[in-house]
């Protein structure tokens, strides 16, 4: 996006064209969709309806990544590596809030009310979308220079600065957001490796969360259950046990979940330093390698404190992985492809999330070590993919066109 002097204005036909939906509009639609179906979930008459409605919620959540794109396009190059990872603090706050809420609501008035209460913040946030400006980069790329100028003038006013003289000059692209562009020769290798990394990171992230619950429910801490206790449990009547051996979390289980969740912010300072000084690729490959190691350490015979420590570090590492790949994906693609690149990557993320339960709760029941080795192997593949990414985005200005 450039400012030129003595250049002709864009013709009237350009300024009155129908513009494509903006990132902020997509974000609003995704919030409306997610909040609506989340609220409906609390009225599910059967398990099938519950699964279907949560699937619809997932469809809405997939559009939330547009918020990161908006932030990325507003931030200067030197601040992106510092400001974007700080978004993790708000993710952590939401995670801690829902765990604390669950510990109070589920034992008293049930899971349906937990979902209803949890839907309230999303509904309230919908009203804040009218205050979110669209990226000037996006508006210029679609020929909507009037909206771009309005945004830039608003920024200049907030910063007590003055807009430079001249006119915005940028080629208007008629073709934008094509899936084929992601597989163009220039970005083919980058796209394929990013997809592998997104799939692997989400697989590991949700694997850690589900494995935490599985460890707590099955009480797999070494030496925590004696043989006599195991015999007594086996002798309990079938009527008193669920076929899946599920039981209500005790207060100590919720405390363990809170401690391990706090781990998601523990490495944030180091993650920010790594992103800004080592670069996105090297930082991600290191944290992915460490994630693989800590998955294997879960197999060590340890105490409850040791298990919590391993889970704490795993949550910290997988959160750092997500931080870095979010930033890298938003930076590596030009404006004309950024939303599409993030959207397709988010789709691969959902696939990894769907596969994770089969490993954390099914394979782990048959072979605990086998499940951990699979998680670890996937993380190693992601570490290699991150290290060999062809483009480093550290200190690189956002690209406007391909």
TrEMBL record:
| Principal subcellular localization | membrane
Q: Which residues form the Major facilitator superfamily (MFS) profile domain?
A: 1-394
Bilayer-crossing residues are: 89-106, 113-132, 192-216, 366-389
Keyword tags: Membrane, Transmembrane, Transmembrane helix, Transport
UniProt cross-references to SUPFAM superfamilies, sorted A to Z? MFS general substrate transporter
Q: Which InterPro entries match?
A: MFS_dom, MFS_sugar_transport-like, MFS_trans_sf
The protein depicted here goes by the name Transporter SVOPL isoform X4
Q: Where found, per UniProt?
A: Endomembrane system
Q: Which gene encodes it?
A: SVOPL
PROSITE patterns per UniProt? MFS
Among Gene3D superfamilies, the record links this protein to:
MFS general substrate transporter like domains (1.20.1250.20)
Instruction: Kindly list the GO molecular function terms attached to this UniProt entry.
Output: transmembrane transporter activity
């Amino acid at each position: 996006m450039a400012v030129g002097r003595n250049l002709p204005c864009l013709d009237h036909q350009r300024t009155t064209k129908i513009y494509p939906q903006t990132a902020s509009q997509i974000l609003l639609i995704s919030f409306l969709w997610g909040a609506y179906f989340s609220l409906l979930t609390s009225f599910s008459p059967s398990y099938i309806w519950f699964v279907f409605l949560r699937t619809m919620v997932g469809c809405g959540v997939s559009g939330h990544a547009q918020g990161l794109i908006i932030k990325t396009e507003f931030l200067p190059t030197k601040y992106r590596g510092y400001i974007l990872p700080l978004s993790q603090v708000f993710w952590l706050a939401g995670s801690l809030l829902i765990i604390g809420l669950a510990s109070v609501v589920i034992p008293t008035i049930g899971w349906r009310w937990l979902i209803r209460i949890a839907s309230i913040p999303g509904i309230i946030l919908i009203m804040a979308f009218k205050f979110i400006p669209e990226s000037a980069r996006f508006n210029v790329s679609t020929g909507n220079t009037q909206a771009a100028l309005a945004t830039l003038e608003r920024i200049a006013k907030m910063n007590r600065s003055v807009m430079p003289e001249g006119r915005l000059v940028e080629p208007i692209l008629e073709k934008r957001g094509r899936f084929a562009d992601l597989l163009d020769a220039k970005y083919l290798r980058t796209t394929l490796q990013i997809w592998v990394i997104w799939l692997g990171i989400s697989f590991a992230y949700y694997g850690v969360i589900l494995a935490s619950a599985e460890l707590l429910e099955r009480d797999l801490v070494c030496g925590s259950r004696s043989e006599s206790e195991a015999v007594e449990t086996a002798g309990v009547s079938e009527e008193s046990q669920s076929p899946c051996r599920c039981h209500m979390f005790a207060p100590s289980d919720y405390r363990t979940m809170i401690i391990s969740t706090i781990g998601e912010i523990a490495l944030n300072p180091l993650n920010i330093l790594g992103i800004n000084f080592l670069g996105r690729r090297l930082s991600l490959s290191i944290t992915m390698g460490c994630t693989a190691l800590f998955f294997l350490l879960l197999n060590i015979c340890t105490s409850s404190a040791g298990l919590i420590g391993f889970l704490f570090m795993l949550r910290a590492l997988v959160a750092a992985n997500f931080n870095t790949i979010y930033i890298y994906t938003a930076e590596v693609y030009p404006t004309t492809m950024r939303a599409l690149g993030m959207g397709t990557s988010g789709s691969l993320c959902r696939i990894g999330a769907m596969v994770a339960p089969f490993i954390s709760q099914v394979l782990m029941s048959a072979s605990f070590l086998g499940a951990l080795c699979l998680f670890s192997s996937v993380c190693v593949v992601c570490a290699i993919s991150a290290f060999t990414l062809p483009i480093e985005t550290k200190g690189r200005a956002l690209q406007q066109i391909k």
